[in-house]
C-alpha cells in the first residue's frame, strides 16, 4: 500500500485533483466577484462603493459584527472554561450543543429568533411594554450574528485550556499568588490566542451572515439594512455590479482578518 501511495503518478494525480477542486470552488468564484465589480470601470466601482446606502450598510454591518464578536469572546470564553474545568451531569450533552449553529440552516436560526423574540412572543410583548422592540431592529441582528458565530470562540479556547499544565497553576499558588492573579498571569495569556482568533473568525462570519439576518432585520438604511441584505437587494434590482462592489469590500476585509488570524496562531505556536 505504501508503495502505491509513494508512486509519483498517483501523488501527482492526487495533488492535481485537490488543486483543481480548490481552484474551481474557491479561487474562480472569488476572481469572478472581483472581475464583475470592475467590469464597468473604476469610476463605476467607486460610485457603487461611495453610494450612501451601500456605505451605511457596510458600516452598520461592521459595527454590529464587532458587538457580536465581543459578546462571543466574553460568553464563549466563560462557556469554554466551564465545559473544560468542571464536571457535571449533562456536560457532554451541552458540549455537543455548542456546534448546533453549524448544523442548523441559518434561516432556521432566524426563525427561532422571530418566534422567541418577535412581537407576538412573551419576550417581544414585554419589550414593547418597556418601550422598545427587538425583531426588525439592531438587537435582533446582533442576536442573529451571535447565534451563528457562537461556536468559534468556544472551540478555539477549549483546546488551549486543556493544554495548560496544572503544575504551572500550582506553582503560582505555591508562590502566594491569588486565584485572580494566577488567572491573569498564567491562564489568560494561554487562552488569549484562542480568544483573539476565535473572535476574529466570529467577526468575519458575522460580516457575511444572510440567512438568519434577513429574517430579523429591516430595510432601513443606516439602521437595519446590513451589507448582505443590501447585496441581495441589488441582485433583485438587476444591479450585479453594485452587489459585486460591496461584496469586494467584505471579501477584502475577510482576507485581512484571515491573515491576522494566521499571524496570531503562528505567534502562539512560537511561544
From TrEMBL:
Keywords: Cell membrane, Membrane, Molybdenum, Sulfate transport, Transmembrane, Transmembrane helix, Transport. It comes from the Bacteria. InterPro entries: CysT_permease (IPR011865), MetI-like (IPR000515), MetI-like_sf (IPR035906), ModB_ABC (IPR011867), Sulph_transpt2 (IPR005667). Part of the binding-protein-dependent transport system for molybdenum; probably responsible for the translocation of the substrate across the membrane. Part of the ABC transporter complex CysAWTP (TC 3.A.1.6.1) involved in sulfate/thiosulfate import. Probably responsible for the translocation of the substrate across the membrane. It is a multi-pass membrane protein. It comes from Paenibacillus silvae. The complex is composed of two ATP-binding proteins (CysA), two transmembrane proteins (CysT and CysW) and a solute-binding protein (CysP). The keyword DNA-binding does not apply. CDD domains: TM_PBP2. It is found in: Cell membrane; Membrane. Its main location: membrane. Belongs to the binding-protein-dependent transport system permease family. CysTW subfamily. PANTHER family: SULFATE TRANSPORT SYSTEM PERMEASE PROTEIN (PTHR30406), SULFATE TRANSPORT SYSTEM PERMEASE PROTEIN CYST (PTHR30406:SF8). PROSITE patterns: ABC_TM1. The chain crosses the membrane at residues 12-36, 57-82, 102-122, 134-154, 210-232, 244-264. This is Molybdenum transport system permease. Residues 58-261 form the ABC transmembrane type-1 domain.
